[in-house]
């Protein structure tokens, strides 16, 4: 093996090992923040090994969705414990990481923000539920069971509707599509043959022009 290639492989392996060693390991509690409502706050704690110099910060990859405030860090022996507050700003997902001395942690805190249910949305949901219930009641009152029994005995209408919607219409659509594509391909072939036999006719050849008339 070429010594230059071997040296390059060794350097790559050394850089990879340095990156693994320099990586920061963090444990979050809770491990994830799910369904955080807009405008609400969630308190999160974390634990990480103490590094020199001791400079910790917390960053969100999408502050528009979730932002981080009120970071407090305390050192207890070989570990550093900290707490911070996550605020839900808008619907979506975000990842919160701890940064120590410019090195981001491998672990991240997943945050999902949902819409906060307002009084207006609750009124709308209840109104729709009441209207749908009344509609079902009206339909039940208007039903004539004798007519329903006659339709079930001779289900000509439902069978025709089912056949038309789920069998006839898809087959007709596919047939029309294939026939149209075949016609266009035939027109293109005629144009190519015409231009090949008579290059002067290239100006007059088009998909909807003389070639289609032939």
From TrEMBL:
InterPro entries: Na+/solute_symporter_sf (IPR038770)
Keywords: Signal
Signal peptide range: 1-23
Domain of life: Eukaryota
Name listed for the protein in its UniProt record: Uncharacterized protein
Organism: Rhipicephalus microplus
